[in-house]
What we know:
The protein is an alpha/beta fold and 327 residues long. It has a domain at 6-182 and 215-244 and 276-293: Rossmann fold, CATH 3.40.50.720. It is built from eleven helices and 13 strands. The chain has helices at 15-24, 59-69, 83-88, 91-111, 145-162, 188-197, 216-229, 248-259, 282-288, 296-309, 311-318, and strands spanning 6-10, 29-34, 50-53, 73-76, 114-120, 169-175, 178-179, 202-205, 210-212, 214-215, 235-238, 245-247, 264-267. Helix 1 links the parallel strand 1 (6-10) and strand 2 (29-34). Helix 4 (91-111) runs parallel beside helix 5 and helix 6 runs parallel beside helix 8 (248-259). The longest helix has 21 residues, at 91-111. It is globular, with a radius of gyration of 19 Å. The site of nicotinamide-adenine-dinucleotide has 33 residues, from helix 1, strand 2, helix 4 and strand 5. Nicotinamide-adenine-dinucleotide binds at residues 10-11, 13-17, 33-40, 55-57, 77-81, 96, 100, 118, 120, 150, 175, 177-178, 184, 324.
Amino acid sequence: MASYNRLLVTGHLGFIASTFCHRYKDNYQITGVDFAGWGSMERNLVPGVRDLRADIADGEKLRSIIVEVRPDAIINFAAESHVDRSNEDDSCFWRSNVMGARNLAHEAMRLGIRMVQVSTDEVYGDAHASNAPWTETSPINPKNPYSVTKAAAEMLLAVYGRSERHHLDIVITRGANTIGPRQFPEKAVPKAVWCFTHDIEFPLFRTPARRMWMHVDDHAAGIEAALRKGNKGAVYNIAPSFDSEEMTVTVIRRVRDIIGKGTIREVQDRANYDLRYWMDSSKAKRELGWTAKYTLDETVKATVGWYLENGGWLEAANNLPAGGGKG
Ligand SMILES: NC(=O)c1ccc[n+]([C@@H]2O[C@H](COP(=O)([O-])OP(=O)(O)OC[C@H]3O[C@@H](n4cnc5c(N)ncnc54)[C@H](O)[C@@H]3O)[C@@H](O)[C@H]2O)c1
């Protein structure tokens, strides 16, 4: 098993990468690269992590950073990640999610180092009509512009991994719906905490949908295991147990119960609304020795508890003018 010391972690001011930095700052020397866009907060910066500002879609700038840092692995968390915004305008999604991933892959190939691409269950599409959960060999069939860009990046990186011309040491993780501390309040659970604590009605999409709810600590641990133990060219589903699958309305009601008040109002579904993501992560258990540690109830309780204890974070995130950066 290879060992790594200097990591380049992109998107470290965002939700999942900041958790990764909290968990692994003592195991690795981490340099973060983030352009402080949507989903980011300066206050998410983890002490001990080097903080560089750059757009990974800017190939020249990225090259100068890589030459200086000389990482021995890259983990790409950076992405435009909000489905609703991708429905409105997907141009920046192509730039960050595809061009950015492509530039990182070229740097990884130049140095001959491993790259972990943090992808999503959304590339599989919608399991609403499926009679079995997705495995890594299930066809990908993304249904919204965000997940199309994530799938496009995966396909390019997989080709770089397979082709004799490129030889990219790539490992791809497909994570389930993740919740936990420092998630931007455009996403359901932090939005629900904000609404219920501020006497605002929570807007719930009308058509019932279900998700596998994974704690962000578990997601970060799955990605770290993929870095260390993932087979070159492999894809891994990173999902909690099937018991952690639940209807969104049930989870939002649970959030309301913990807070002790609040109203839910049904609204029109978002465009391209996927009703179910359903993944089997037994390959990650077998090959990476990874399984999720949190139960669904622990995940929801710990998440809501964090937002209640860190009201200032939620306040700052809600008051950011363009959805990210300074706060
Ligand atoms: N949140 C989930 O439920 C979930 C589930 C599965 C996979 N993922 C994947 O995990 C990764 C992280 O998701 P998240 O929820 O933490 O997102 P996030 O929106 O909280 O954070 C993304 C970060 O990437 C940065 N970024 C975006 N484009 C960039 C660019 N061009 N250059 C530099 N920095 C850039 C942003 O500024 C932000 O800090 C994404 O790749 C996403 O597709 C997320």
